[in-house]
Design goal:
Length: 194
C-alpha cells in the first residue's frame, strides 16, 4: 500500500516555504501530520496540546482536523521558530501560542486536562514525562514521534528512547501501541475512568 497522505492543510505550502527558507528541519513528516489530523478530528470539542511548535507544520495538521469548537495550545521555546507559525496560523482563533520553556509551562499549568497531547520536544517526552501524562484526560491520547534511529542523533539518544518507551509501557493507566511507521511513533491512550 502506498501510505503517502492525499490531503494536506491549505496552510501547509506557505508554511513549508517559510520553514525551508528559515533552515528549520525538525517539522513532522506528512504521514505523522496526517495522523495528527485524524486524531484531532476524533475529538470534536477537544482540548489539544502540542509541545514544540517549531514553525507550525504540526500545528497546521492539527488545526486541519479540528472542529470549530476544539482548542489547541502550542508551546515553543524559540521565538523565531514560533513567529512563522504565529504569522501563518495566528488568525485562527482556535489556537493559542505560548512562547517559553515547555518544562516550565508544564510545571505551572493548572487548567483542565487535554484530550490529545502531541509531545514533540524534550519536555513532556524526555523530561517532565509524568507531568505531561498527568495532563492527559481519561480516554485521551498521548502521541510521540521520532523514535526510530536517525543519523543526527546525539550520543546516547538511542538509550534515552528505549528508557522512554519502557517508562510509557510500564504505566498501568495507559495502553500503548508502537507504530513502526513514519519516523517511529508511539501512541498511548489513558484508561477511561469506570
Ligand atoms: C521537533 S520540533 C517541533 C516540530 C513541530 N511540532 C512539527 O510537528 O512541525 C521541536 C521544537 O521544540 C523546540 N524546543 C526545544 N526545547 C524546548 C523546550 N524546552 N520547550 C519548548 N520547546 C522546545 C525546538 O525549538 C523545536 O522548534
Amino acid at each position: 500500500m502506498d501510505d503517502t497522505p492525499r490531503r494536506f492543510p491549505a496552510a501547509l505550502p506557505a508554511l513549508r516555504a517559510r520553514t525551508r527558507a528559515a533552515g528549520f528541519i525538525m517539522s513532522c513528516e506528512d504521514r505523522t501530520g496526517s495522523l495528527l489530523t485524524v486524531l484531532a478530528g476524533a475529538r470534536p470539542e477537544g482540548r489539544i496540546l502540542e509541545l514544540g511548535t517549531g514553525t507550525g507544520e504540526g500545528t497546521a495538521w492539527l488545526l486541519d482536523g479540528m472542529s470549530a469548537a476544539a482548542r489547541l495550545v502550542t508551546v515553543e521555546l524559540e521565538p523565531a521558530h514560533q513567529a512563522v507559525a504565529r504569522e501563518e496560523l495566528g488568525s485562527d482563533e482556535r489556537v493559542t501560542f505560548v512562547q517559553g520553556d515547555g518544562g516550565a509551562w508544564l510545571e505551572e499549568y493548572d487548567g483542565a486536562p487535554f484530550d490529545l497531547v502531541f509531545a514533540d520536544t524534550w519536555p513532556g517526552k524526555f523530561t517532565h514525562l509524568d507531568r505531561a501524562l498527568d495532563l492527559v484526560a481519561p480516554g485521551g491520547t498521548y502521541l510521540i514521534d521520532d523514535l526510530d534511529p536517525q543519523p543526527g542523533w546525539p550520543e546516547g539518544h538511542g538509550a534515552s528512547v528505549e528508557r522512554l518507551l519502557g517508562e510509557l509501557e510500564e504505566r498501568k493507566d495507559f495502553r500503548c501501541v508502537r507504530l513502526a511507521w513514519a519516523s517511529g511513533l508511539l501512541m498511548a491512550v489513558r484508561s477511561p475512568v469506570d
